[in-house]
Amino acid sequence: MTEETLTHPLTAIPEKGFSTRCVHAGAARSKPYHALIEPIVQTSTFMFDDTDDVIAYQEARKKGTGTRIEYGRYGNPTVEAAERRVAELEHADGAIMFSSGMAAVTTALLTLLPGGSHLVMTDDCYRRTRQFCREFLGRLGVACTVVPMGDYAALEAAIRPETRLLVSETPTNPYLRVLDVEQFAEIARRRGVLSLVDATFATPVNQRPLDWGVDLVVHSGTKYLGGHNDLLAGFVAGSRDLLATLREGVNILGSVPDPQNAFLLVRGLKTLALRVGHQNRSGQLVAEFLERHPAVERVWYPGLASHPEHQVAARQMAGFGGVVSFNVKGDFDSTRFFLDALQIPYISPSLGGPESLVVQPALNTYYDLSAAQRREIGIEDNLVRLALGLEDPADLIADLDQALVRTVLCGQ
Ligand SMILES: Cc1ncc(COP(=O)(O)O)c(C=O)c1O
Questions:
Q1: Could you give the C-alpha distances from 341 to 131, 249, 391, 398, 400, in angstroms and in order?
Q2: Ligand 1 atom, smallest distance to 234 CA
Q3: Fewer CB within 10 Å: N-end or C-end of the chain?
Q4: Does the annotation count 298 as an active-site position?
């Protein structure tokens, strides 16, 4: 399956190819000083020539025709360049950039969910998102129902009169479960509630949830969009009206990014299609290798026929991504031994950059829970999440092989 063969049901406008848009989308042809690259506008505030200028600015704002920025929390040209590019890549009217992925999630939910309202979310997801929805929002009087990923009857049954939002993630962290975004969006529309999907693991290369009818797409830009393990960022993209509401939330909550990070993010986006294409290919090769390996118990990767949502992924995604999760044959300690035996991936909790990173979720993310509590939420002690970087897949496979063989030979 290629980018070209993916269907975009709600998008009828002819457009440039994805790689072309990664390089040019949202950029003005002519830039300040005839510079080829958009400048970093490193300023916290913007000035007026005189009081007439202030009045002209206020009048334009009142009429809704203003384009000038007054203060750094309300906008920045470098940040806007990043927002325009992400919006075009996601087929959105617009996008808002945030200081981190969690800033994007929390600002969106705090803005959209009044006290007394309710949201429904799917279970396998980034731990902090679940904590925010269940615990933090709960303290503010927003109720949350968690339903099993893939159970659309349960999702629909959980909707109440006060439900405002359905929240999901795809592919999920760490089990790479795949949401049927079309069905998810259809339920939300029919029941008159908004839908939001965190598509950090998919990236707009592999899937654009808005094309399938979802209202808002969220990204941790820290991962594939930035793509170099050197910045934190987040995005929400969607329709003009919803973004206007969210922008008011950002103006108050202040979860804005730094112009330096926006510049780095735009630079990273130029190679998004190339990088994710490589990571898709590596992901498939590594997943197939691991599935054949006698020291591996089970592999979780949407590109494998054994994956519970392989058919949905094949229908709705242009590629299956660069994260492969798997269970090593053995226990907590043999899995630790395996991680220590790896020579290329670093033990580090992120994904989407040039360096391959690996974690044992029981150790890295859920260390504070007992083994029984971890099992209850489906986190096995022998689970490994491998986020492939841009190294040669043959080198990564050789490294995985030697580490697995050593784990077995050392009786771990
Ligand atoms: C799916 C997903 N969403 C959101 C986040 C949070 O992003 P950030 O670390 O940029 O705040 C993460 C972080 O790992 C993630 O994996």
A1: 33, 46, 18, 12, 9
A2: 10
A3: N
A4: no
Tell me, in angstroms, the distance from the centre of ligand 1 to residue 133's CA.
Answer: 14
Q: Which residue has the tokens 């707009």?
A: 204
| Contact predicate 386/338, CB 8 Å | no
Domains of the chain, CATH where assigned: 16-41+76-269 (3.40.640.10), 273-409 (3.90.1150.10)
* φ, ψ for residue 98, nearest 5 deg: -125, 170
Q: Locate tokens 């309202």: which residue?
A: 117
- Measured between alpha carbons, how far is 203 from 24 in angstroms, rounded to an integer? 18
Select which of 73, 127, 189, 247 is catalytic: 73
Test site for ligand 1: of 128, 129, 236, most ligand atoms within 8 A of the Cβ: 128
385 assigned to active site: no
pTM of the model: 0.94
CA 221 to chain centre: 7
Contact status, residue 217 vs residue 197, Cβ threshold 8 Å? yes
- pLDDT tens profile 188-207: 999 999 999 999 999 999 99
